[in-house]
Structures are given as C-alpha cells and as structure tokens.
Automatic annotation (TrEMBL):
The lineage of its organism: Bacteria, Pseudomonadati, Pseudomonadota, Alphaproteobacteria, Hyphomicrobiales. This is Dihydrodipicolinate synthase family protein.
Length: 396
C-alpha cells in the first residue's frame, strides 16, 4: 500500500476563493504511488492522453498547430510504464478543438511506432473531422471520410477507435441512416474497433447522435448496430456522464463486446462493477491521475477492493471539477495537472485553450489534487502554482 510521506505543513501559498478573498492554503500530507505498474491488472484501462504544445514556435495558436513531439511521446511512455493503454488522438488530445487531422495522423504515426518498440497498447481515433460539416452533403460523403481515416491509421499499423462524426450528426435523420454508415464502415475494418459514443456535453455538435435527442431511442439504435456487428467491435466507450445508462447498455451488449467507461464522474464504481459485470476504462481523467489509477487497478486485481477505493475514491472530486460544465473545456485541467506534475515545462495548450478555465477553477483544482495526493512533487507543484498566480496579480 502507498504510504504517506512527511506532512507538507511547511508548504503554503495564497489561493483565491469564490468570494474574492485570498486564503493561505497549507498543503496536506501527500501520498506516493509507484512509478511503474505493480502486478497484473484484471481490467483493460486506456488513458486518453493530451498533446503537449510547443510554445517556442512563432505561429498563430488559434489557426495553426505546434506540437512538442518529444514531450508528447514522453508522456505516453509514462502512461505505458504504469501499465495503462493509450487512446491516441481523441478529444483529450484536443481533436476537433485545435488538433487537425494532418497533425493527428502524425501523432498517431509517432505513437504507434513508439508503442511497437515496447509492445505497448495503443488504439487511435479515426473519424471524419477532415470533412468540414458544411461540405458534407450526403451519407456517402461521411462514409468516404471514415474510410480515408481508417485506411490511414491501419496503414501505419494502428488499431481503431471509431469516433463519433459531427458530419453524421448533421445528416443522420434516423436509425437507418446510422446503420447504413456504421454497417458499411465496420464491414471494412481489419481488426475489431472500439466504438465511441461521445455525449453532447463533450461536443455540442454531436447533439442528437444516433438520429434522435431521446437517449432511450438512441441507446436502442446504438445497441442494435453494435450487436449486429459484434465480430467487428472490440468494445464500446460511452461518455454520457450517466452511470445508469452505461450499466444498462453494458448489460445489453453482446457478451463478446467490452464496455469501456468514459464516465469521468462515476468511474470508480463502474470499474469495480457489480454482481452482473463491470466496465473496463477509457478515460480522459486517467491522463491526470495515471499513477493513482494504475496502483488502484493493481489493488483491485489483487482482490483488495477496499484498497482500490481508498486510492481511486479521492480522485473523483477532482475529476468532477475538471469535467464540470462546460465539459468540453476539461482539457485545460488535464494539461494543468501535467504542468504541475512536471510532465511539461509550461502551461500552454494547442489552440490557446489554456484560457478556457478561470483562475478560480485552477486554484480549486490545485486544492483537490493536493487532497487526493496527486501532486507528485509538492514543492515543484507549489512553485508552479505560484508562478501562474503571479501572472494574475496574486503574489504568494
């Protein structure tokens, strides 16, 4: 079991509060987690991982992408060391919010090559985002866009996460339209894929996915299409932030198909499961809490469910804060955690997205990360938090 280290009573900083006051915040006793996986896992766990921007490129961040490839791949190595898989070029990597398809393909190519060197697990997002929604005139346009990206990912040796399509959300009117697209696309994939159902809280352009705003009807359509293509589907990632809907869907899936929780509000209990089953994991929050997630999963595999909840339970308030509405801006919190924990030397994001959360939000993130024992080096994290606060006129 991870053990507390010396209390951080000597570490404090001034943090803003919602009532416009400033408090002197003293860090709690920290926790340490292993830097590498301890023991086998009995759940498959992917971390959807972020992209590290390069702040030294003279570009226009809202219009063009600059990636620090060394730091970006190094973070994936960190995740693999912990026994987690990498879900590459997904929304956590800012796909559709700053990361375009050409850069995504380069990211996938580099990540797949790095994974092959160490026989690590990586699945990569294939969608239709190179097709502008306004240029999508027919379902055949959507199918061709999917085919192009799937072919490109498979060509570099990658496995597929079939991402939800903004163009299909625009054009798909009913279950038959979705069945036409998914049946055609899935019939061509080389290896079973993970289907990603991303809720509109993550991407408002996906409102009405599966041809309806009624989630019960949408569930019926999704289950019918997925079960009808069971031989081509490894699993389903559901990101609806609705625990019961995920459980209901999990129980309706063909027994060959895995459920990968994408519920960043309720992941601990969904992974633990119940007498009727459990969810595997494909989570953006695992980027920010990878060491704790790895250790917790190793405790679960060892039969220590209490230890699993002892480690993972305290991370849930942080995750709920990072993923609070507007949920699509959660990437800012994920990257801020990477900055606090020394995985990158700056708090700069692709697309200038570091500006999407307030200073109050970041201050509360720091408090919650500290309470969960997720600051790997409290002294470094405190210095970096003070630096960010100083840019907002708060001196510690």
């Amino acid at each position: 079991m991870n053990k507390p280290v010396q209390p951080m009573s000597s570490l404090s900083l001034k943090l803003p509060k919602a009532d416009r006051s400033i408090e002197t915040y003293r860090l709690a006793a920290s926790r340490t987690f292993p830097a590498k996986l301890e023991g086998p896992l009995n759940r498959i766990a992917f971390s959807a991982v972020h992209t590290v921007a390069d702040p030294f490129v003279d570009n226009d961040p809202w219009l063009s992408v600059a990636v620090d490839w060394d730091k970006t791949i190094a973070f994936r190595e960190h995740v693999w060391d912990l026994g987690l898989g990498v879900a590459e070029a997904m929304d956590t990597a800012q796909r559709g919010m700053g990361l375009d398809w050409p850069t995504s393909l380069e990211l996938i190519t580099r990540s797949v090559a790095a994974a092959k060197r160490r026989n690590a697990l990586v699945f990569s997002g294939a969608g239709t985002d190179h097709l502008a929604v306004e240029d999508a005139k027919s379902l055949d346009d959507v199918i061709r866009a999917y085919e192009e990206q799937i072919s490109a990912v498979e060509k570099v040796g990658g496995r597929i996460i079939l991402m939800a399509s903004r163009a299909l959300a625009k054009l798909g009117r009913n279950a038959d339209d979705y069945a036409k697209v998914y049946d055609r696309v899935l019939s061509q994939v080389r290896e079973p894929v993970i289907i990603h159902w991303l809720g509109d809280m993550f991407d408002p352009a996906l409102t009405g996915y599966w041809g309806t705003r009624d989630l019960d009807q949408a569930m019926n359509t999704a289950v019918a299409i997925i079960n009808g293509n069971a031989a081509k589907v490894d699993g389903v990632k559901v990101s609806l932030l609705d625990k019961q809907r995920e459980i209901d869907m999990r129980r309706r899936l063909d027994k060959r198909i895995k459920m990968y929780t994408g519920d960043d509000f309720n992941y601990a209990e969904l992974i633990a499961g119940d007498e009727q089953g459990f969810s595997h994991a494909l989570l953006g929050i695992f980027d920010a809490i990878a060491p704790a997630a790895s250790y917790a999963l190793s405790r679960l595999a060892a039969g220590d469910e209490a230890g699993f909840h002892d480690v993972l339970g305290p991370t849930v308030p942080l995750s709920r804060h990072i993923f609070k509405a507007p949920t699509r801006f959660y990437k800012t919190g994920v990257v801020f955690m990477a900055y606090l924990n020394g995985h990158q030397d700056h708090f700069t994001m692709v697309g200038g997205q570091e500006s999407t959360r307030s200073m109050l939000h970041l201050a509360e993130l720091f408090r919650l990360a500290d309470k969960a024992g997720l600051l790997a080096n409290p002294e470094l994290a405190t210095r970096r938090m003070k630096t960010v606060l100083a840019t907002h006129g708060i001196e510690s």
